[in-house]
Amino acid sequence: MIDTDLAELYEVTTGNLNLAVQRNMERFPEDLMFKLSTGEYESLILQIARSKKGRGGRRHLPYVFTEHGVAMLSSVLNSPRAIQMHIYIIRTFIKMRELLAIDKNIELKLLQFQDELHRHGEDIDHILGILKKLLDEPIKPIGHLGFRP
């Protein structure tokens, strides 16, 4: 999650959130938090409005926190609101993980279904080939049927 979104959830300014992080950098290794690169930030700001320098807005690259970084952040902020938001965010990450697991199961079942359809398609092609041969064979005239006096 990006620092501005977390600051909004924790009801603090982004500056105060980042200040708390900078004072506790030893708690935030790269696998818990990182800064976006300039290119990543540029692609992000295409999706959000940006104010000009001198009129408010972001002047530094944002921090991005992983699930465990969010947990560490709530211990750094250590307010009742931070604790509530920590629980809420962790539950959200858990739900996302569950949904991804469901998607993987669905994907596996679709692949199995695709394989079965492919096998059935081959069987149907074989049957259609036999029917075509039968239909393409000329009909031989049958002699007189029935009783002959």
CA-based gyration radius: 33 Å
Instruction: Kindly estimate the percentage of residues that lie in beta strands according to DSSP.
Output: under 5%
Count of extended strands = 2
What is the straight-line distance between the termini?
Answer: 98 Å
Question: What does this molecule look like?
Answer:
The protein has 149 residues and is mainly alpha-helical. It has helices spanning 3-10, 14-23, 38-45, 67-77, 80-136; strands at residues 33-35, 63-65. The chain has a domain at 3-100. A two-stranded antiparallel ribbon has the order 1-2. α1 (3-10) packs across α2 (14-23) and α4 runs antiparallel to α5. The protein is rod-shaped, with a radius of gyration of 33 Å. The model has no long low-confidence stretch (mean pLDDT 80).
Which helices and strands appear, and what pairs or packs with what?
Layout: H1 3-10, H2 14-23, E1 33-35, H3 38-45, E2 63-65, H4 67-77, H5 80-136
Antiparallel strand pairs: 1-2
Features:
149 residues; two-stranded antiparallel ribbon; 4% strand; rod-shaped
Task: Produce a short descriptive summary.
By secondary structure, the chain is mostly helical.
